[in-house]
Amino acid sequence: MKRAERLYAIVDLLRANSPAPLSVSRMAAEFEVTHRTIERDLASLLAAGVPIHARPGRAGGYLIEREFSLPPLQFTPREAYALITGLAAMAGSPFAADAVTALRKVRAALPGKGAAATAAQVADTFFLQDAGPADTEAAAVLGRALHEGTVVVIDYLGDDGTVTHRAVEPLALLSVRGRWVVAGWCRLRQAIRGFRPDRVRGIELTGEPIPDRGAALADDLARWTFRSAQL
């Protein structure tokens, strides 16, 4: 994580935890940096005018008013539940770590009390608190390819037990019948196919940007329903 990203993340974490303080030790563990790094980050935020307050004592730490830089979005309770449920479901996906930070932003935008805020806190604690990278190398690489918009080369195990070598342009991450599937343009089949990370036997991130396929992609999307990449 870049320093600028960490500074924003510290503010989000403090706001989400408000009005309780957070210790330097906990923040250092959260962002996997040293105590000194967190202390420098807090000093930079204070110098920039962020209203961070120190609370002394054994149970003390740093805190920030929840109202600071509140985002303009306002959620109804039903919308909040929908977001919380969806983010919690991402715990096993390649975007688990991003779901953690997104959930904290939802928590920070909610009132400090109420059923929706309580649900967000429960989801953060039990579903996403320990969520890390996906449990397979393929899922992690596919997630990175989606984020960066780059082509991957994979060895994929089909339903018939045959392994095929193909270049894929990842397009989206889907949840299909309880499994994570990456939908992408398969250059071997010249069409969109669905790829399960657990069936990838080898993967390489090429760094090649995904090209704009224009009408060909739009036409295939218009008629596409999920298919396992078995052909």
Tally of strands = 7
Number of helices: 8
Major pleated sheet? 5 strands, antiparallel
Euclidean distance between termini CA atoms:
39 Å
H/E element string?
Answer: HHHEEHHHHEEEEEH
CATH architecture designation of the largest domain = Roll
Helix content: 40-55%
By CATH reckoning, the class of the largest domain would read Mainly Beta
- Biggest sheet strand order reads 6-5-4-3-7
Poorly predicted runs = 125-134, 225-231
Overall average pLDDT? 77
What overall form do the CA principal axes indicate? Answer: elongated
Share of residues in strands:
15-25%
The number of distinct structural domains comes to 3
Question: What value does the Rg take, in angstroms?
Answer: 21 Å
Entry keywords:
single chain; 231 residues; alpha+beta; Arc Repressor Mutant, subunit A; SH3 type barrels; five-stranded antiparallel beta sheet; two-stranded antiparallel sheet; 8 helices; 23% strand; elongated
